[in-house]
């Protein structure tokens, strides 16, 4: 949750920094700039405070013997289900921010380009366990999964 | 999943023993070799049997492309580099230099490069793989396992046809759009192409892991029967060549040509070409006499007449060009089913094109009706199959099963292809009042917001008044569109197919085989949640990769998903609970239930 907050904050801070820089460089009429900056700050604060809570409440994932299920998003929510028998690859990845927080993402892809399932922000050991489990159960099934 | 691999030649997994004895005739080799083509060197295939035993396939001789390509390749290269060569000529001459000499040098280089392509490209078909070796400086070996071959696409352009050649493209089921998924052979003799296609699609090895080259060799390829007499019944078994005609172009269908709008692209390309020539060559179009006369005469008319005239001229041009395009692309269109379990499409007036598609890769069918075509009672059919690209224009992607034709014909053909009429004729379940409301609110909200912004800009920022007036017109026009969009929405499950329909500019009705569905996405935006709606997407490896049932009631969405693939959703559904949060994970039965986050 903090991770999402920080990630959003970093993005917003970059935008605000650009606007501040512009404010100082541009010598002309500063009124619109100040207004835009104020709007940005308000949006940023509300986004950074609301979004992580919301996401945290929405995000869920689950695996059974037959299927993987994820639930993600906040304003636009998405539930995804894929049968284990149709799984093509299981990846786990960690970006720099994730490493800072000791987290990992797991991506489960199927033969369809439309439906990769992503589990965001698992702690590292859980992610490893999930990857191992899925790899094992995927190996047990046969067929070319299309 | 990677089916086509680039193997550097040093590690080429099936590098042939090239220098070994080339004396044996090919009879003893593992695979039936088509008889040598007239232009090829003497039959020098078939390598030592020791290699045959070690790895079936190593023994197969590398074949070359048709020798006649020595003529075509250089011409192709020159045509491809013509803009550069012409540029070189102009650039050189304008500075008083030796432009013509340099362009001649460039021409010579291109001719040599084109010729070399024939010498550097070889291919072979082993019991397990199809391989192509190519490249002069960067040698590459493309290997496609034969059990992954899904389509064989044969094209021949004008020059190819004059010389009796055809280009072969072997399609694998690569879903990603990266280049290199397909294996191309440009080009072979037409009879050899037919043989190759039969071999690749109808006589596949029994199992890729345990090939039996002896048996392959024993079964000589049967010569295809005359295709003019369609057999009443598919002959069971492995005999290739028996074909049943599912559809053939009737000249009356050309009346749908003007409604395909493909001519719009032609018009755009032509306009771009003319403007580019004019600007690069510093040609003032007004100085050309006929153009000036027309412009002068039209210039005196009223503005609305000018606009109307331009629109009418464009419409006529597009209609004519579309009709020409239709005839060019679909002349002698035939859709046949061969007894080997493939669908075969041939078409084309000047450039002929033949696509062969394995029926077991077919996951469904799409009836698509672009607006104008729908208004004139026409429809076209597109195959939903793994390994066939869509989105590059269905005509080019080769997935067209029926060109624009009368709707009843499309339904008949779809019925024949699917073997059941339900998916294309069954009544669809409408999506209810909430979906209807959503269509209207979306249309009005977007257009209304744009109108309001433009109105504000006109009032305070001096934007011309016609902008918001035009936006208002669009808003009004959006209402019937919204109503039509709602009318298009529908879904059902019938005869083992999930059927969904949507769209107004292009109304598509997709019947997707339940077997082809490999997952579900249920998407709900903020406003959809408030309206109790959801968009259910069935993901698949075929066609567009995902087909959506738009704006359906959430409970209904879950119901569809559960009916289409029974059991998959069951662990996540709370049947007794409220449908709106029925998919909350049930902690009691699951091996893992964890919440994300730190």
Shape of chain A: elongated
- Estimate the mean pLDDT confidence of chain B: 72
SSE string of chain A, helix = H, strand = E?
HHEEEEHEEH
Largest sheet of chain A: 3 strands, antiparallel
Shape-level CATH architecture of the largest domain in chain A: Roll
Spatially, the strands of the biggest sheet of chain A line up as 1-2-3
Structure write-up:
The complex is a heterodimer of chains A (146) and B (598). Chain A is of the alpha+beta class. Chain A has two domains: 2-57; 60-140, PH-domain like. Chain A is built from four helices and six strands. Chain A has helices spanning 2-25, 31-58, 96-101, 124-140, and strands at residues 60-63, 67-72, 77-83, 87-93, 103-110, 117-123. Chain A has a three-stranded antiparallel sheet. Chain A has a three-stranded antiparallel sheet with strand order 4-5-6. In chain A, β2 (67-72) and β3 form a beta hairpin. In chain A, α1 runs antiparallel to α2 (31-58). Chain B has 598 residues and is α+β, with helices and mostly antiparallel strands. Chain B folds into five domains: 5-65 and 121-208, PH-domain like, CATH 2.30.29; 72-114, no CATH class; 248-252 and 331-421, PH-domain like (Roll), CATH 2.30.29; 263-321, no CATH class; 432-581, no CATH class. Chain B has helices spanning 49-54, 69-80, 82-94, 99-120, 158-162, 190-202, 213-218, 262-280, 289-299, 303-330, 371-375, 394-397, 407-418, 422-425, 432-461, 465-488, 526-531, 554-564; strands at 5-7, 63-64, 122-125, 129-134, 140-145, 149-156, 165-172, 183-189, 243-248, 334-338, 342-347, 352-358, 362-370, 378-385, 400-406, 490-494, 497-502, 506-513, 517-524, 533-540, 546-553, 592-594. In chain B, the strands form four sheets. A seven-stranded antiparallel sheet of chain B has the order 8-7-6-12-11-10-9, sandwiched between helices. In chain B, strands 15-14-13-18-17-16 form a six-stranded antiparallel sheet, with helices on both faces. In chain B, strands 1-5-4-3-2 form a five-stranded antiparallel sheet. Residues 1-56, 175-180, 205-240, 391-395 and 575-598 of chain B have low confidence and may be disordered. Chains A and B meet through α1, β1, β2, β3 and β6 of A and β19, β20 and β22 of B.
């Amino acid at each position: 949750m903090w991770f999402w907050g920080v990630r959003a904050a970093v993005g917003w801070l970059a935008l605000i920094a650009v606007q501040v820089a512009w404010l100082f460089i541009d010598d002309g009429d500063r009124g619109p700039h100040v207004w835009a900056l104020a709007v940005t700050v308000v949006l940023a604060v509300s986004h950074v405070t609301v979004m992580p809570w919301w996401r945290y409440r929405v995000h869920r994932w689950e695996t059974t013997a037959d299927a993987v299920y994820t639930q993600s998003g906040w304003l636009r929510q998405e539930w995804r289900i894929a049968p284990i028998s149709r799984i093509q690859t299981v990846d786990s990845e960690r970006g720099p921010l994730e490493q800072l927080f000791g987290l990992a993402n797991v991506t489960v892809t199927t033969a369809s380009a439309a439906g990769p399932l992503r589990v965001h922000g698992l702690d590292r050991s859980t992610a490893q366990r999930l990857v191992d489990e899925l790899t094992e159960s995927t190996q047990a099934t046969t067929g070319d999964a299309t | 999943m990677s089916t086509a691999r680039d193997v550097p030649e040093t590690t080429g997994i099936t590098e042939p023993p090239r220098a070994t004895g080339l004396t044996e005739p090919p009879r003893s080799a593992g695979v039936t070799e088509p008889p040598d083509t007239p232009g090829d060197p003497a039959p020098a295939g078939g390598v030592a049997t020791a290699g045959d035993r070690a790895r079936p396939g190593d023994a197969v001789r590398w074949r070359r492309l048709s020798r006649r390509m020595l003529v075509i390749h250089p011409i192709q290269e020159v045509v491809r580099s013509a803009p550069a060569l012409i540029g070189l000529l102009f650039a050189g001459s304008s500075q008083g230099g030796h432009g013509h000499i340099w362009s001649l040098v460039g021409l010579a280089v291109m001719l040599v490069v084109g010729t070399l392509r024939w010498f550097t490209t070889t291919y072979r078909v082993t019991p397990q793989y199809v391989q192509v070796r190519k490249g002069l400086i960067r040698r590459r070996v493309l290997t496609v396992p034969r059990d992954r071959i899904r389509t064989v696409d044969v094209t021949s352009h004008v020059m190819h046809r004059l010389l009796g050649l055809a280009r072969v493209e072997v399609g694998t089921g690569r879903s990603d759009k990266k280049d290199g998924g397909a294996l191309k052979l440009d080009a072979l003799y037409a009879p050899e192409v037919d043989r190759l296609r039969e071999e690749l699609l109808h006589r596949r090895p029994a199992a890729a892991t345990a090939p039996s080259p002896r048996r392959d060799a024993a079964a000589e390829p049967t010569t295809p029967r005359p295709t003019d007499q369609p057999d009443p019944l598919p002959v069971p078994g492995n005999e290739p060549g028996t074909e049943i005609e599912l559809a053939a172009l009737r000249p009356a269908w050309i009346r749908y040509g003007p409604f395909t709008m493909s001519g719009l692209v032609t018009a755009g390309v032509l306009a771009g070409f003319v403007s580019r020539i004019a600007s690069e060559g510093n040609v003032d179009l007004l100085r050309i006499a006929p153009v000036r006369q027309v412009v002068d005469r039209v210039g005196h008319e009223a503005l609305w007449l000018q606009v109307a005239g331009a629109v009418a001229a464009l419409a006529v041009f597009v209609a004519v060009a579309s009709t020409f395009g239709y005839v060019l692309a679909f002349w002698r269109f035939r859709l046949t089913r061969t007894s080997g379990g493939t669908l075969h499409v041939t078409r084309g007036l000047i450039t002929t094109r033949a696509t062969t598609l394995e029926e077991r890769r077919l996951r469904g069918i799409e009836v698509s009706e672009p607006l104008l075509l729908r208004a004139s009672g026409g429809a076209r059919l597109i195959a939903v199959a793994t390994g066939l690209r869509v989105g590059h224009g269905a005509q080019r992607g080769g997935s067209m099963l029926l060109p624009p034709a009368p709707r009843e014909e499309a339904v008949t053909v779809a019925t024949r292809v699917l073997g059941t009429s339900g998916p294309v004729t069954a009544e669809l379940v409408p999506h209810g009042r909430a979906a209807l409301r959503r269509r209207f609110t979306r249309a009005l909200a977007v257009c209304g917001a744009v109108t309001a912004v433009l109105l504000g800009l006109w009032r305070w920022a001096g934007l011309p008044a016609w902008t918001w007036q035009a936006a208002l017109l669009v808003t009004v026009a959006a209402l019937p569109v919204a109503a039509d969009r709602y009318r298009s929405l529908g879904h059902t499950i019938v005869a083992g197919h999930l059927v969904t329909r949507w769209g107004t500019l292009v109304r598509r009705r997709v019947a997707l085989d339940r077997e082809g569905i490999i997952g579900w996405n249920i998407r709900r935006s903020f406003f959809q949640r408030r309206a109790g709606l959801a968009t259910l997407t069935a993901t698949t490896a075929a066609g567009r990769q995902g087909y959506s049932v738009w704006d359906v009631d959430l409970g209904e969405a879950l119901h569809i998903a559960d009916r289409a693939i029974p059991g998959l959703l069951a662990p996540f559904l709370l049947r007794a609970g409220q449908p709106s949060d029925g998919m909350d994970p049930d902690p009691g039965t699951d091996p893992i239930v964890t919440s994300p986050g730190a």
